[in-house]
Amino acid sequence: MGKRSGHHSTPKTVGASGGGGGHAYPFSYTVRKVANMTSDFLAMEASAGILLVIAAVIALIIANTPLYGIYDHILHGIYFRIGFDDLGGSFDHEIKKSLLHWINDGFMAIFFFLVGLEIKREVVTGELSSRARALLPAIAAIGGMAIPALFYYVVNIDTPENMAGWAIPAATDIAFALGVLALLGSRVPISLKILLTAIAIIDDLGAILIIAFFYTDNLAMEPLMFAAAALVGLFILNRTNIAFHKAPYIILGIILWVAVLKSGVHATLAGVATAFFIPVRDDDDPSVMPCKELEHTLHPWVAFGILPIFAFTNAGVPFKGMGFDSLFDPTTLGIILGLFLGKQLGIFSALFLAIKTGLSPKPEGATWLQLYGVSVLCGIGFTMSLFIGGLAFADIEHQASIRLGVLVGSVASAVVGYLILRASKPAKA
Questions:
Q1: What are all long-range contacts of 38-47, with beta carbons under 8 Å and residues at least 24 apart?
Q2: What is the model's pTM?
Q3: Hey, which residues does 97 pair with through a beta bridge?
Q4: What dihedral do alpha carbons 40, 380, 126, 213 form, nearest 10°?
Q5: Which of 107, 190, 197, 278 is the most buried (most CB within 10 A)?
Q6: How far is CA 333 from the centre of its chain?
Q7: Distance between CA 118 and CA 357 in Å, rounded?
Q8: Which helix (DSSP H) or strand (DSSP E) does residue 92 occupy?
Q9: What does each C-alpha distance from 266 to 170, 253, 388 come to in angstroms?
Q10: What are residue 201's phi and psi, to 5 degrees?
Q11: What is the pLDDT, as a whole number, of residue 172?
């Protein structure tokens, strides 16, 4: 074998014309390069939020082209079913829903299952595990839910038919918000990321309770009995420390999902309920941590699959017939003001009062301007706001107003919050 040269040489390849003098990267090298770039992108904290934006933009483009008819038909006109029935119709145990409903009731149940796992882990061992740690984000989250709802109520006080949407601006999209924060890198202290995560998690818990209590009706008692039996089974698994095997929890979780779906309660709550029974760790072997393992397994599927699919199928709004005056529709305006103004006022005022009165210490290394910037970022409602909007209103007119309001309010919060944090200076030592 000859000696390897001391300088880096570009691999030679034969040109398309058959000549041998050209220099180019081999195809295999290009494939590896693309694969590495893809891997690096997926490893970025901001990548999930970026994918959400891309999915929403593609949906908006399609919704405003001749392709909208196909897009709408696929989502609303194609039905899938699972279950059993007979030809006579005397035996009918099946679930038949449109593709959009399977995404919103099925895929989003997995998203809420992951949210439930995160909430439980944070409460048991994480940032919400003590009163001192949980108090500041809890106070901020309450302010961040109450004030946006108040904004929406005031704007729509003369249109009672719109009041069902009061909770739409009360939500925060944790993936989107953390994605924007990650773009700033070391410009912001780690304490702000922890604070934003904790606020968003408590915010998610509030959204779950809102869905359970305010967007559930026409209850069917027989499916609820099956749901109760599944919950008892999950409780027994948890109390008997069945931690090594996750399959029994998943099986009972699926049974619970079907029962809850048939009962009239929103099916996504089954995901949260199941998650709350997953053990954080094995009592006999603390190294076995089912909750954390499931989080690690599900996170990429949710962040890079389920949430972009949800965004793509729910963000497509045709702007035909809309003008600048559409922004002043009570539903749209209430959502925009709630997300952009209500969120920042509610969260920052709560943080300011809690810190100044001594209820909780100021996050380490954070300035007041940075705390304000994070408060603005919490106005990114997107996923949760669109989801609650879908529960609040079914008609296409309201859906168009909701999507416009959520998009404008969320984008404004993201841009302004990013600019504030980028302009902020680090705290003095």
A1: 42/300, 42/304, 44/182, 45/178, 45/179, 45/181, 45/182, 46/178, 46/179, 46/180, 46/182, 46/183, 47/179, 47/303, 47/304
A2: 0.75
A3: 80
A4: -130
A5: 278
A6: 23
A7: 30
A8: strand 92-98
A9: 18, 14, 11
A10: -65, -45
A11: 87
List beta partners, residue 79.
98
Start-to-end C-alpha separation, the chain: 60
**What pLDDT does 17 receive?**
42
Would you give the DSSP letter of residue 127?
Answer: T
On whether the CB atoms of residues 390 and 156 are closer than 8 A, the answer is: no
Task: Report d(CA 229, CA 207) in Å as an integer.
Answer: 25
Instruction: Name the amino acid, one letter, at 307.
Output: L
Taking CB atoms within 8 Å and a gap of at least 24, the contacts of 65-74 are 68/316, 68/318, 71/316, 72/316, 74/99
Residue-wise over 106-121: b if at least 16 C-beta within 10 A, else e? bbbbbbbbbbbbbbbb
**Which residues, at least 6 apart from 317, have a Cβ–Cβ distance to it below 8 Å?**
60, 63, 399, 400, 403, 404, 407
- Residue-wise pLDDT for 59-88, tens only, equals 989 999 999 999 999 998 988 888 766 655
DSSP state letter for 102: I
- For residue 68, the number of C-alpha atoms closer than 13 Å in the C-beta half-sphere is 13
Count CA atoms closer than 13 A to 67's CA, side-chain side.
10
Residue 198 contacts residue 116 (beta carbons within 8 Å): no
Separation between Cα atoms, residue 251 and residue 247, nearest integer Å: 6
For domain 65-87+94-423, the question of CATH label 1.25.40.10 is answered with no
C-alpha R_g of the chain: 25
Per residue in 182-230, pLDDT tens? 788 778 888 888 888 888 888 888 888 888 788 776 778 888 899 999 9
